[in-house]
Amino acid sequence: MLIMRVLQSTSLHGYALAQRIHLLSSEVLAVEEGLLYPTLQKMLLKGWVTAEWGVSETNRKVRFYRLTTDGRKQLKAELSEYDRVTQAIQEVLRTA
Amino acid sequence: MGELFRRIRYLLNRHRFDAELENDIEFHREMAAQAGCNNFGNTLRIREQAREVWGWTWLDRLLQDLRFGLRILVRSPGFTLVAILVLAVGIGVNVCAFSLFDMIALKPLPVRDPGSLVRLERRSPNASTDGVPYTSLLFYGRNAKTLSAAIGVLGVPPMQVDDDLQSASASFVTSNYFVELGTPVGYGRLFVPAQDDAPDASPSVTTQRSSTGQRSCLICPTWL
Q1: Per residue in B68-81, pLDDT tens?
Q2: Which CATH number fits domain A2-95: 3.30.870.10, 1.10.10.10, 1.10.1040.10, 3.40.50.1110?
Q3: HSE (CB half, 13 Å, CA atoms) of B124?
Q4: Does B21 contact chain A (CB < 8 Å)?
Q5: Gap between the Cα atoms of B43 and B30, Å rounded
Q6: pLDDT tens digit sequence for B185-200
Q7: What is the pTM of this model?
Q8: Cβ A41–B6 below 8 Å, yes or no?
Q9: Residue A27 sits at the chain B interface (C-beta within 8 Å)
Q10: ipTM of the predicted assembly exceeds 0.95
Q11: Distance from CA of A15 to the nearest CA of B (A)
């Protein structure tokens, strides 16, 4: 979900994606490569992202991942689900 | 549906996809090394995990097992040869037996509509016969409502035809034999009721040679 949210605004390559999540979460969250790439492959399989060739900052050919329309729909669904669950948890923590 | 297409596309372009992923991971590794964190983890393991996502690992494992089995067989040729021979004999015998059975028992009669043929039989409490008097046959043919036609066949002793070593089997038949049955025939013309039933028609014969080479003759005599 976080990967898709970051890709919503811009297309990035794998390393930049991991870095961005790490920075945006104030270095609390770190996406391991062992999780990142299998997840990206799964999203490619489901058609939520596509990969296009581009050139990195260091002038190296690398693939940039971009969110598709299906991906955006999936992101919306997952965000609303996450909100629902978080709210439920908050309720229990607050009132129990 | 789209997912299935993507899976198949992956299967067909396996190498390219794998190479692309390897490139991505290499790049990530370089950037991470530049930034100073060297605990990348096992590259091969990551690639394997990524490959498992596409769902074709069962195929890979199957091919691996087949290749392994083949290697083992090649290493012991004697055993392989015997096994193949035994299988060949077993399968061959079964195929032969079944085709023989098929030829003899299961093939339908070579007539136009075998399901509609019936044989008339006369019964008494003690006996039955499928001989029917000629006049009864004519009567049934003309008046029966459930029968479209009545064909009569009378077997007669075999006869010598030309110089055949085997004698030819012969039967007298009514002129509507071929018309009703739709049987194919060898030499001679087919019996035609209009022609062969005429009072001044001469007897005509058709012959047939079976697959075993025996000749059989069908004779349309002048009936009384």
Answers
A1: 999 999 999 999 99
A2: 1.10.10.10
A3: 4
A4: yes
A5: 12
A6: 666 667 777 777 767 7
A7: 0.56
A8: no
A9: no
A10: no
A11: 5
